[in-house]
Amino acid sequence: MEKGPRxxxxxSRARRRAKRSSPAIQNALTVPATTTLLHGAQMPIIGLxxxxxxxxxxxxxxxxxxxxxYRLIDTAYAYGNEEGVGRGVRAxxxxxxxxxxxxxxNGEWHGYAAVQEAFRLASQKLDLDYIDLFLIxxxxxxxxxxxxxxxxxxxxxxxxxxxxxxxxxxxxxxxxRLIEETGLAPDVNQVQLNPMLTRAEIRACHARHGIRxxxxxxxxxxxxxxxxxxxxxxxxxxxxxxxxxxLEIAQRTGKTPAQVILRWHLxxxxxxxxxxxxxxxxxxxxxxxxxxxxxxxxxxxxxxxHGDVAAVxxxxxxx
Length: 319
Ligand SMILES: NC(=O)c1ccc[n+]([C@@H]2O[C@H](COP(=O)([O-])OP(=O)(O)OC[C@H]3O[C@@H](n4cnc5c(N)ncnc54)[C@H](OP(=O)(O)O)[C@@H]3O)[C@@H](O)[C@H]2O)c1
Known about the structure:
This protein is of the alpha/beta class. It has a single domain (5-310), classed as NADP-dependent oxidoreductase domain (TIM Barrel). It is built from twelve helices and ten strands. The strands form two sheets. The chain has an eight-stranded parallel β-sheet. Helix 4 (112-126) crosses helix 5 and helix 9 crosses helix 10. The protein starts with 6 loop residues before the first helix and ends in a 17-residue tail after the last helix. Bound molecules: NADP nicotinamide-adenine-dinucleotide phosphate. Residues 49-51, 74, 168-169, 190, 216-224, 241, 258, 273-278, 281, 284-285 line the site of NADP nicotinamide-adenine-dinucleotide phosphate (NAP).
């Protein structure tokens, strides 16, 4: 395979372009700050989730999100919308270098060579010559091949086809094994995380190794919610946007409950990926940089935790 675009070259191009485009963008929008990942990439600290958004709807939703200031878009092979997401990204006036596209490989590509094939397929569907962050979607420990897949991702990083590599739904034991066997930690681990699932143990593991935590189901409202609630017997009607503690903080800070929850993620240095197709909610969800939560507010929200037992168990579930 030929070498991909060199990351350093595209970064300096990005800086030159950012100088030209940033003032206008900043006047019109909230553009999230970025964080530096373990292997050097810059990643926006909030992004748009795209599951379950249909492929046909994705171009318009993604283009709209970028217009509103989103710079990180999260998709996956399994969502069936990589083509639509790619179209939305390419339709935007924002230079490619200022955008950050994440996709994820499925279990059938858990293997060193298979990962190179998964990258070719994903970059073809997205119609992008590099991917910012490529994740192993689920560890599937029963198949026992995630370390081989990790070696395949390391090769993509070395060849410059991806700017960052990571995992999703990995438990501390899975992460420790990757590091023991390859010496390289993920840039990111994307896990189910919200005030009902604060995931203290996995966040501590990430902190030890310099891994950035990304949260799926950040509002605790996604489609997986029903399944997790059914598995654990939690009350299915639980909606943290209606929690009295969250409502009190929202009233006091003049923000919405969703903004309070998303700010809670940022206070914990977690990158949330809220999903919505509604432009009003998109704008609401990214407008979280003009206030902060103190330690007492963070503790009030974190007290909604039900423990890891309420999370989808990635030793049993995955694809
Ligand atoms: N790595 C993984 O295994 C994995 C698994 C699941 C999801 N994900 C990723 O994480 C993303 C987010 O997860 P999720 O969709 O499960 O959960 P979520 O973002 O917590 O919840 C999405 C739900 O919240 C609603 N919503 C969004 N903003 C709102 C607001 N401001 N006020 C009230 N309701 C609001 C949305 O409704 P509307 O759309 O109707 O506005 C949607 O029903 C996914 O899209 C996907 O990209 C990853």
